[in-house]
Amino acid sequence: MAFLFLEVGLMKVAVLVHAPYERLGNIQQWLDTQSAEVLEVNLYQKSFVYPELSSLDLLIVLGGPMSVNEEDDYPWLVAEKQYIADAIAAEIPVLGICLGGQLIAAALGAKVTLNDETEIGWHKLQRVPSTAEVFQFPDEIEVFNWHGETFELPRGAVRLLQSEVCANQAYQLGANVIGLQCHPEVTTKEVQEWVDEIGEQMIEGAYVHTPDRMLAETDEKSEAVKPVLFSLLDYLTRR
Q: Which of 22, 80, 119, 185 is catalytic?
């Protein structure tokens, strides 16, 4: 009896990285379970190459210390926004985290502006009820935040999450594009590096936690968020 073995292609994932201390965190664990081929595009370096969109199964856009509006200081933002827009047009699943969520919004013509409050630390987010067929977050979830800006929703997007001082914490566009303002991927390593590298962003505020408080809470709360993060990644790549 003859058997026919079909080679199953590996998942190919491009990751847009904006600073050396911006990492995949717990997303890496999910990628490992998928035996995914990960292509990092380090935009903070002088030379980088965008992978061909036709080869990708998922595009992940990480956070960063800059604003999407600082194109004069970071001219590569222009091409990056176009690459993201092209990926969405090609119906490639896209996940944007913090700056990444803002970049998706900006790439689609939505504004990114200052939020009323700076949110840094572990904050409770509430699911926004919707009749649309979208990813279902828990009714309430505590997720790490580090942002001073916020995005408007791109045209046609559905709002998924909100916090007490940030109405747009997550959105979904179509079947496979999700932008987040929060950071469900962080581990203690990421939080410690951000405190060390960009701690000057931690201005005083009612929604800015101390480093000691954030770091004391991160191990336990990161583990609690991880199943939701993995479910979100499964949802985006389900097809």
A: 185
Q: How far apart are CA 99 and CA 223, in angstroms?
A: 23
**Residues 159, 171: contact at Cβ < 8 Å?**
yes
Residue 183: active-site member: yes
Whether 98 is catalytic is yes
Residue-wise pLDDT for 16-71, tens only, equals 999 999 999 999 999 999 999 999 999 999 899 999 999 999 999 999 999 999 99
Structure tokens at 114: 């200052």
Q: Note the pLDDT tens digit of each residue in 135-154.
A: 999 999 999 999 999 999 99
Give me the numbers of helices (H) and strands (E) for the chain, helices first please: 5, 9
12-236 maps to which CATH number?
3.40.50.880
Verify whether residue 182 is a known catalytic residue: no
Marked catalytic residue, from 18, 123, 183, 209:
183
Q: What is the pLDDT of residue 6?
A: 39
Catalytic residue among 22, 80, 98, 182, which?
A: 98
